[in-house]
């Protein structure tokens, strides 16, 4: 259903140990709310990303539950602490069961 | 200007509807808050909610929430068909308890943020956003 889904994440390439960095994430997704109707009056079924998580070396940074009131192409900005060099793992969970992933390495 | 019996009844019915509708919208938001807090009392300080006073397009309204030390923040839009917007759960590596995103608002309404603070208490903040064009289609 949701086609052309493309995650994009902006993370600094390097940071000093213990530094707090800002992460911006965006994923192209229609986020069909389940409230809209098509031309013939039928309700367009809900199709959204319902959960987004960010982990660093397996430790949770943020875990967001999304509802239909989140805009098309869900965008999030948040802060993370970088204790040592490693990798951020971003995961988006779609209503239709698809899982979209992206990873970013950070050097210290 | 004189009202006929029919007009008076129509006006009365309209007024009754006007008072009932906002109450229903708020009731479902209150249910969502109660489910999140477990009915605990909420303080007025401890959580910050940033939202524009006037949003031209209800489809993308930028908001940000911040609650130092919070473990979770619930965001609600009381006037939407479904009041839930998002729940932010902060993990041990969260730099600070701040997040921003873009939300949909069906019309002019209050946006509410409820934070679960580090000591287990809850805090609440709300802000009225005027919406020129609603963002729920239909």
UniProtKB/TrEMBL annotation, chain A:
It comes from the Bacteria. InterPro entries: Ig-like_fold, Ig_E-set, SoxZ, SoxZ_dom. Gene3D superfamilies: Immunoglobulins. Residues 10-104 form the Sulphur oxidation protein SoxZ domain. It holds the Pfam family SoxZ. This is Thiosulfate oxidation carrier complex protein SoxZ. It comes from Mesobacterium hydrothermale. The lineage of its organism: Bacteria, Pseudomonadati, Pseudomonadota, Alphaproteobacteria, Rhodobacterales. The gene is soxZ.
UniProtKB/TrEMBL annotation, chain B:
It comes from the Bacteria. Transmembrane segments: none annotated. InterPro entries: SoxY, SoxY_sf, Sulphur_oxidation_SoxY. Pfam families: SoxY. Residues 34-136 form the Ig-like SoxY domain. This is Thiosulfate oxidation carrier protein SoxY. It comes from Mesobacterium hydrothermale.
């Amino acid at each position: 259903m949701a086609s052309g889904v493309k995650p994009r994440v902006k993370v600094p390439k390097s940071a000093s140990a213990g530094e707090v960095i800002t992460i911006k994430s965006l994923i192209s997704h229609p986020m069909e709310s389940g409230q809209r109707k098509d031309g013939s009056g039928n309700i367009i079924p809900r199709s959204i990303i319902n959960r987004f998580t960010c982990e660093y070396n397996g430790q949770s940074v943020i875990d967001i539950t999304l509802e239909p009131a989140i805009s098309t192409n869900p965008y999030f900005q948040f802060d993370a602490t970088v204790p040592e060099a490693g990798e951020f793992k971003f995961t988006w969970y779609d209503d239709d069961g698809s899982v979209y992933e992206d990873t970013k390495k950070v050097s210290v | 200007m004189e009202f006929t019996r029919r007009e008076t009844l129509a006006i009365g019915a309209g007024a009754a509807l006007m008072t009932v509708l906002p109450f229903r919208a708020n009731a479902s938001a209150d249910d969502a808050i109660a489910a999140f807090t477990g009915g605990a009392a909420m303080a007025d300080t401890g959580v910050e909610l940033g939202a524009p006073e006037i949003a031209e397009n209800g489809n993308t309204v930028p908001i940000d929430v911040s609650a130092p030390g919070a473990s979770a923040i619930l965001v609600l839009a009381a006037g939407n068909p479904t009041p839930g917007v998002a729940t932010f759960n902060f993990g041990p590596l969260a730099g600070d308890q701040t997040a921003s995103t873009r939300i949909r608002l069906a019309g002019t309404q209050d946006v509410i943020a409820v934070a679960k603070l580090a000591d287990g208490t809850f805090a609440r903040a709300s802000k009225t956003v005027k919406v020129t064009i609603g963002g729920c289609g239909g």
